[in-house]
Fold these 2 entries.
Entry 1:
Amino acid sequence: MKRRTLGILLAGSLVAATAAMAIPITPDPARDNPTETIHAGRSHTSGPDGYVDDTWWAARDRCAPDYLGERLLCNAFGVLTRATSRTFEDKMSEGVGLPLPDGWGLMTAKNSPFIRSAHAETPLDVMAVLGFYRAALGGRGWTENDGATVEPGRAIVAFTTTDGPALLRLIRQDGRTIADLSLRKPAVATSGILPKPGQVRLLLGNKTDQAAEITVNERTIKLAARAGEDLADSDAASGELPDSQKIDLPPGKYKVTVKPDGSAAQKREFEVAANETWGLLVGPDGVPLPIRLY
């Protein structure tokens, strides 16, 4: 009797579990975090006279379950991915010395003789991200300058540090806040990476095995597979890019579309200021990877 009861209970549990797996739910962006997988990479370049150049990038896939069972699996994967993310964040923060806001889905970071920079995209709103950076940077001894711009969906804050001037730029776009934090070092970049006075230099590359297109406003540049994939590794690598992968622009906002062959296009809008140099790489699954180089 006991064995028969146990069998009935076990069968009932399996039926219930199977039914739960098929229960449809509405994905919740606030709850269903980017937890499935993380793609990450780092390059380290060293040279004479103590030259060191580190570049970091990472992108996380968002788990958007349609059924209860998928949510349970997402949560399980999330535990592992969050642990991986924390390890990566700790190493990146140690190498670059800049904080990252919670819940980021995409980040790039740079520590070169010319700059320390970090780009992050997070679902948190602008005010939450601004509060995070003010607290984190104040704790590192950074002093916020007067004249900050804080508007709905946008913020620009300058800082004074013992290592040089720093700038935080936040823009709300398509349900995410794009955060760019940079600290300019005293060293001057070489001609290959240096923007024209009052202009912005944009360097383009492709880290994928497929050909790709990058459209900046109405201008489209075609890139072969792996073309310029190392552009962010050092100023020497940037200087070796062909002229077709270098664009000089006036400062402002630019709409960018990245489309590898056989993949859907991904769009972003970036704000850039005079005398900045950026690298824009086609990342895994066509994710745009913007990296502040100078």
Entry 2:
Amino acid sequence: QARDIKIVIVNPHHVNKSKELEDNSPTKSDYKDAKVIADLIRNGKYSEPKLPAMEYAELRILMNFREKVMVSLNQVKARVHNWFDRYFPEYLSVFKDWEGKTSLMTMRQFPTPEEIVSTGARGVLAHWKTEVKRGVGIKRAEKLFATAGISIGLTEGLRAARLELLSLLDQYELFSKQVETTMKQVMDILSEIPGTTQMLNIPGVGAVTVAGFLAEVGDLSHYDHGQQIIRLAGLNLKENSSGKRKGKTGITKRGRSRLRALLFRCVMPMVAKNEEFKALHKYFTTRSQNPLKKKQSLIALCGKLIRVLHTLGTKEIEYNANEVLGPVRQAQLQQIAA
């Protein structure tokens, strides 16, 4: 690009499917691949990549890094639960959320039931009060002491078990800090991109969704309408039909899988929290003609969310429930309600 050389991308699926058109043979070689690719480009069977730049390039790096850190963080959380299952299975009956400050203090200072029993309820409470002034009292300490006294956890190898838990807590704090630092930088970048404030005002859409969407899509001004982004995500429909036979309709999945997964994870809670998407989901799944299955409805709403994000991001207008539904859809919803 710096030398004004036009860059294009040929889909590997197209190369694989069209290589037999050359010589009616399934053989594959570097020479043949190069010739097939050259023919596809000559015939215009290519796409022009939209490489992210400036803030969008930074967003893509940060969100990819966050995704990897979240995988590691969830693995550490699962290993902590595994540790409790082995050495103190009753612990979560006292602290339903072991990630709280008081719980983390307990896990570092008194990781095993034996240490809690030897310290006593008053000793445990005294340690809590060094950093936590409110929210914990003698009742919680006594409950922890009583639970530790009747624990059925393993009692052998406790010295190694203590070291294992402390190491897991160190990893947990490291990954949590990395996620926090990453999201802080992401929020700073989002504040520099026009239209993000309006997108964040959509009920059920958070910073992770908006940042991940822009990281995968790039500058929204490069797209004339939301359908182009739908194709980029691989959410456009495909049909296999021949003559009188009509096959099932599905999505192509020829696009950015991370974008597709991000939208699906966002839409699932939206059909419960966002009134407009909730109404659309109910309409799609209960209409008299061509009702959709629940998953099909969620896929359709992913496309709707893309169009809403594109409109708000490019026009920088506030979220409007009436415009999201539109007059035709509102009339259909009223007809069903009646």
